[in-house]
Amino acid sequence: MSVKLIQNFIAGKLCHPANADKLSVTNPATGEITGEVALSSAAEVDQAVQAAKTAIVKWATTPPLRRARVMFRFLELLQQNHNRLAEAITKEHGKTFEDAKGEVQRGIEVVEFACGVPHLLKGTFSEQVANAVDAYSFRQPLGVVAGITPFNFPVMVPMWMYPMAIACGNSFVLKPSEKDPSASLLMAELLQQAELPDGVFNVVQGGREAVEALLDHPDIAAISFVGSTPIARIIYQRGTAHDKRVQALGGAKNHMIIMPDADLDQAASALMGAGYGSAGERCMAISVAVPVGEETANALLDRLIPQVKTLKIGNGMEPGLDMGPLVTRTHLDKVSAYVDSGVEQGARLLVDGRGYVVPGHENGFFIGGCLFDKVTPEMEIYKNEIFGPVLSTVRVPTYAAAMKLVHNNPYGNGIAIFTRDGDTARDFVSKIEVGMVGVNVPIPVPVAFHSFGGWKKSLFGDHDIYGPESINFYTRLKAVTSRWPTGIKEGAKFNFPTL
Ligand code: NAD
Questions:
Q1: Distance between Cα 229 and ligand 1 center (Å)
Q2: How do residues 51-108 score in pLDDT, each as one tens digit?
Q3: Predicted structure pTM score
Q4: I need a surface site. Which of 182, 330, 389, 497 has the fewest CB within 10 A?
Q5: For residue 73, which phi and psi values (nearest 5 degrees)?
Q6: Is the Cβ atom of 161 under 6 angstroms away from ligand 1?
Q7: Is the CB of residue 283 below 6 angstroms from any atom belonging to ligand 1?
Q8: 254-439 is classed in which CATH architecture?
């Protein structure tokens, strides 16, 4: 099998950084090395930023309607290339092709939102705030902005960022995950076909060195980051120390509360999809089931055990599967080690997926679904984000105990409650300290015209991502007070101006 070189895309051209170190990219289903990605240095980052700076001069003043037309063309190309993008995801990330198509679709929806940018950028105007004085406010782009993205959504998460950044009149430098970087170049190709001027969208491949160069670069105005909490914190601190606007979305430990009155068949199905879909490699995956009461717990687990045991697992390019492999062997080892630690610390492993082998894919990075009961908050499997197909059950006696458990958890990304009681649901929505809440909906990822963001250690910064919040993040407000006609005669005023 040929090994492709995954390059940078700067000023409209693919380019390979001179003397760069390279990292292997693998197909997680087979374990084969399929590509090599260049690890860019500060020099390549600077090259991309200079290209973005050059492009911004014209792009920032291009009328929003024309910028929207580029987005409309891009939208059409994304629809035509939907399967191609999904295949690129599956072959480097491992998730099933159907799941990858869903990822692309959620990204496309952000582009649909970006097509409405002329309306979204409309300012406000107040006539005659004083004699012959008008006041108005409008938003202008920031300049060059950058996005740093995780491995688990190589298409959708970059699309949470660049469509709105570009539509708002900024130019963009993307640093995708080095684990599944190919999709970034497909998106660059489609943007070019959509007639986006060269230099408005650039891709710099790499790891920590490239990220640090972006954080320190004086010509980058804002950074959007999505990834794990320890790195999100570093990004936020280092980026803001360089006076940049930063939104840094971090990791998660998402709970699902199952009330005794819930429809348990529905709750169990929801848990299966939310816990094991994409092999648990989702920031909105449910990793903790919290049944209220012993009876609820027993009845729920009776439903879950056979389903977890019979998950259909294999090469994500084959049809009819529930989940594929994990992204890398290192990650597989990490997830397996968490399962070991759960057993050592006394949790009951009801279904053990360790050592799972897919015939014909013996070198793939597979693990079967794992299901724990009797997990307590002190255990490592509860405290840490495992990011694998491992569902922990924490039994609680009451609704109040469930709320307390969640409030003591440092993360606040997503949560769901399953109940048929309106009072409980309303109380939960109002009081829970989590950014995205589902009521009988297991993965409450907001649609593209709302915004996405967690609370607590799941987001550093003041802005959520995509949707209306992205307008605020990717632009700055200008307020103007103007007097016309100029013929009005007034003497000098030395007191603070009041109208
Ligand atoms: P990661 O934090 O390891 O990497 C994210 C990005 O940061 C990558 O581009 C990587 O190259 C870069 N990076 C890694 N280490 C770095 C360092 N020391 N210094 C500078 N840059 C560094 O995350 P990941 O493993 O790629 O993705 C999984 C994580 O992302 C999970 O924690 C998941 O919850 C989180 N995630 C969060 C959201 C959200 O919306 N909150 C969405 C998707 C993923």
A1: 8
A2: 999 999 999 999 999 999 999 999 999 999 999 999 999 999 999 999 999 999 999 9
A3: 0.97
A4: 497
A5: -65, -40
A6: no
A7: yes
A8: 3-Layer(aba) Sandwich (3.40)
